[in-house]
Amino acid sequence: MKREFVTGTVDKLLSQFKANDSGNAPVLLMLGGFKFSLNTAVFREIQQSNEYRWQAQDRIGQMAALQYTGPGSASMTLPGVIYYQFRGAGNELSQLRKLAAQGTPHRLLTGKGGNLGLWVIEKIDATASEFTADSAILKQEFTLSLRKHSNGTNV
């Protein structure tokens, strides 16, 4: 029973890797089964934001006392670009939209194997520019907005 579960899990992960092939380009980041690389979609920068919660307690004749109540939300924004005449299969943003539509958190891994935890896709913005004569898109810029998932801890 355990062997069948492990085999099924490995097969599922392999199919995710094959579905979004980065070819021989190194993977920069992976969200769920989607790999960000020069051959798929490449981000230009990573913008991160972390909030920390402080509760104010008003005091008479003094400044409010602040008490740390824990970490707030963590978010990440990945602005990037896809040049279809150079690389890209044309379905990268569709794959990301399908990943977002699953309504589940996805593991975010660095290209060196670092585990950044579970994240959800909050928003995908896209701008198409530079077209061929038959209206095929040559360049598509995107911004992917992610928020860290609590994974059920402290809820």
Quick tags:
155 residues; eight-stranded antiparallel sheet; 2 helices; alpha+beta; Myoviridae_GpU; 52% strand; Phage tail protein; single chain; elongated; Elongation Factor Tu (Ef-tu), domain 3; 8 strands
Task: Please tell me about this protein's structure.
There is one protein chain. The protein has a domain at 20-49 and 71-148: Elongation Factor Tu (Ef-tu), domain 3 (Beta Barrel), CATH 2.40.30. The longest helix is centred in the N-terminal third of the chain and has 18 residues, at 2-19. The model has no long low-confidence stretch (mean pLDDT 84). It has 2 helices and 8 strands; from the N terminus they run H-E-E-E-E-E-H-E-E-E. Strands 1, 2, 3, 4, 5, 6, 7 and 8 form an 8-stranded antiparallel β-sheet that branches. Helix content is 18%, strand content 52%. The protein has helices at residues 2-19, 92-101, and strands at 27-31, 34-37, 42-43, 47-59, 62-83, 106-110, 115-131, 137-148. With 155 residues, the chain is of the alpha+beta class. The two termini are 33 Å apart.
